[in-house]
Amino acid sequence: MQARKPVVAGQFYPGQHDSCVSEINECIEAENLSELLPETILAGIVPHAGWTFSGSLAALVFSAIKQRHEKVNTFIIFGAAHSYFGVLPAVSNRGLWTTPLGEIVIDEELADDILGTGQAVSDPNAHLSEHSIEVQIPFLQHLFPGAKIVPVLVPPTEQAVELGTRVGEIIGQQEDKKIVCIGSTDLTHYGPRYGFVPMGTGKNALAWAKEVNDKTFIDLALKLKPAELLAGAVKDGNACGPGAAAATVAAAKKLGCKRGLLLGHTTSNEIMLQKMGTTSADSVGYAAIVF
């Protein structure tokens, strides 16, 4: 059976089983769900940096799903295409993925349904070096044992919205299964390191990145405007996985969601100050959203 092995275990998150479980629990305990959650959660947007920076926000989304749905059969995980340059979204549609917590099986039947829409292609190799989906998997293994996955890398093209809409249609027909879509993206990468400094450098520039640029993306996601979110992200540089986010929002919209809920929003700079007592000229935004 084809098995995708972890490539960022020991870097973005712990490489050993016990350390991995311990850090997941720390992430879950670090954030409290204070918002009134919707009765049913259809989808979520999570960040994908190293767990030190974004694990707590990712945990917010997965904890919210767990609170509303004890059992989830399958997570369709739309990932950012950092190094995949194909035109169509790429599905890892056979076998299983492994992490320090063991194996998680691909829902091959659902993957085939997605491929059957003509909006994606089978390309497991596209996933071999991509971290945006991998860093979410241990959370699912820990909180939802027995759940399956369908990993999909989504480039920032108009195809993302159509894919999400068609996935929403497929999920709507699965009356006997609970399926949740997850979109993996970080927000504005601001600073000299990223070659993105439209407002210059310094404290005010970093505040703009979070309060203006990130917020533009977040507001469009909450209002379920996937096409505008995608176009805006390409123009404004406020997300590294806009295709993944747009597909997620489109799926939630097709399934009848009227508005998203922001659970948390922070930046790497704020986390550095909190955890390490230092700051940087560069910063990356992170948001946790459920639909």
Question: Helices, strands, pairings?
Answer:
Blueprint: E1 3-4, H1 17-30, E2 43-46, H2 51-68, E3 74-80, E4 90-91, E5 96-99, E6 102-105, H3 108-115, E7 121-122, H4 137-143, E8 148-154, H5 159-172, E9 179-184, E10 189-190, H6 203-222, H7 226-236, H8 242-254, E11 261-267, H9 268-276, E12 283-290
Parallel strand pairs: 1-5, 2-9, 3-8, 3-9, 4-7
Antiparallel strand pairs: 2-12, 4-8, 5-6, 10-12, 11-12
Helix pairs in contact: 1-2, 5-8, 6-7, 7-8
Question: Overview of this structure, please?
Answer:
- With 291 residues, the protein is an alpha/beta fold.
- It has one domain (3-290): 3-Layer(aba) Sandwich (Protocatechuate 4,5-dioxygenase, Chain B), CATH 3.40.830.
- The protein is built from nine helices and twelve strands.
- The strands form two sheets. Strands 2, 3, 4, 7, 8, 9, 10, 11 and 12 form a nine-stranded mixed sheet that branches.
- Strand 5 (96-99) and strand 6 form a beta hairpin.
- Helix 7 (226-236) packs antiparallel against helix 8.
- It is globular.
- The two termini are 34 Å apart.
- The mean pLDDT is 96.
